[in-house]
Give the backbone structure.
Amino acid sequence: MSVVCIEFKPGLEGIPATQSSISYVDGQQGILEYRGINVGQLAKHSSFLETAYLLIWGHLPSEEELKIFEYDVRHHRRVKFRIRDMMKCFPETGHPMDALQASAAALGLFYSRRALDNPEYIRSAVVRLLAKIPTMVAAFKLIRSGNDPVMPRDDLDYSANFLYMLTEQVPEPLAARIFDVCLTLHAEHTINASTFSAMVTASTLTDPYAVVASAVGTLAGPLHGGANEDVISMLEDIGSVENVRPYLDGLLERKAKIMGFGHRVYKVKDPRALILQELAEELFDKFGYDKNYEIALELEKAVEEKLAHKGIYPNVDFYSGLVYRKLGIPMDLFTPIFAISRVAGWLAHWKEQLAANRIFRPTQIYTGDHNVSYTPIEER
Ligand code: SDX
């Protein structure tokens, strides 16, 4: 029996859009679990690819399953030359999220066959998207500066290979490990805007490449994944610990949103922000300090004084940029890296949606007129 929900909630706040067993968030306690496992446990003991497998197939892989999965992803990292050539036509000033959305959709030109009832097709789409999205992100970074992209290296694991394709240097093991933990932390987060986008697109039974392209476009927004880039710009604008409070007062006077703070669900500090802070400190110990960190700590303290009563605390985007910068990643690639990771969550929800699909078609509360006559242009 369908229950008619007549109360309109802006942004569907608190309205369930699905039933899901993929992840769970407790916004009051600051808990995030992937298939029931606390994300802190996965950050400590797992890898991004093992976590992706857990999210998508619902259980931790056996040693054999993981070995085959890693082998398959490793051997699908290359991207068709036509997609690389397409990227060479993109303006070098274009944002990498737009380049990623275009190239993710372009994958559908080569692999779109929509055999959604065929488990092998589902698996191959998962492998291709997890394998090729990092290659396309790295490729555009090199192409926009007039260089040829670097070919993936099969002898490097997922995160080390991405950093290699991006920087043309094999990363230090600590850098690759910390980057891999960042991917695990960003992989899934219940029904956020880009995941909801993926689900709505999936519900029309289009191909998974269109699903991911739709989600990439949604993640790009500054209220969602795009905040991590804006956080670093804000910290640099602030410039010093002394300027934190005057700067914050200015933002609050203008009723501006403070990037990297606040969350629809978390009313305490995002558990991912806590772990990202530890990763940043580990990198600072090894590779040198970033003065923006002390500005960030001071800003966190100042925001807590002013906005804790509204449940406004750091979210996942507040400290991630400091980690990526220390890894030598350009700022405008922070959100594409968020996308590399979130592909795992989007694909998990794509698969779950297909298993019990009904096309999304919400209703509205109509506020317009009725029976309005047409006014000829000469009378307007
Ligand atoms: C992500 O959903 C997810 O799970 C997302 C994510 C994921 O993993 O997928 O966690 C990733 O997107 C993190 C969020 C990154 N975005 C930002 O950091 C941008 C800044 N944050 C805000 O835009 C905001 O907090 C949102 C968009 C994240 C949440 O917005 P809500 O839930 O719609 O909250 P709201 O805008 O209704 O604000 C409620 C109140 C308002 O005050 P009042 O009008 O009631 O007085 O809180 C205030 C807002 O002004 N507020 C903020 C604020 N966020 C909310 N005030 C200042 N700065 C902020 N950042």
Notes: Strands lie at 23-26, 31-34, 37-38.
